[in-house]
Design goal:
By secondary structure, this protein is mostly helical. The termini are far apart. It has helices at residues 3-35, 41-67, 73-104, 117-124. Helix 1 (3-35) packs parallel to helix 3.
Length: 126
């Protein structure tokens, strides 16, 4: 790998790292908003924009990887670090989603139905 290619992949990885950092911070803000009872609508546009950017970055990295046969060890280590970071972000996203779903659920309390004697007797009376 020549120095030009090395700078290209390092630049791509640095941009990817910055994007995942922004996404992680956004998810932390969403989690704080949920805990305080605020809506997630304030962050939806920002989240959508970051997801579009990170999807484009994934495509660029994938295209770069398909064209390159060998990556240097420092580059491989950086890729592994970013993969681990992305996995943590995905876990945080699931936690935020779970919190959102439980907070927005209209069902509260006991789900057991209490039988009404007149309805029960009508159901068994042929």
């Amino acid at each position: 790998m020549n120095s030009n290619e090395e700078q290209t992949i390092e630049r791509l990885l640095a941009e990817y790292d910055a994007l995942t950092g922004q996404l992680g911070e956004l998810l932390k803000r969403e989690q704080a908003n949920l805990k305080s009872g605020r809506s997630l609508e304030a962050t939806m546009e920002e989240k959508q924009g970051l997801l579009v950017q990170i999807t484009a970055m994934n495509q660029a990295l994938r295209a770069y990887g398909q064209q390159r046969e060998r990556l240097l060890d420092p580059v491989k280590a950086k890729i592994e670090q970013l993969q681990n970071k992305l996995m943590l972000i995905l876990k945080l996203d699931r936690a935020v989603e779970k919190s959102y779903l439980s907070a927005s659920s209209p069902v509260t309390g006991d789900l057991k139905l209490k039988p009404v004697p007149s309805r029960v007797s009508r159901a068994y009376a042929g």
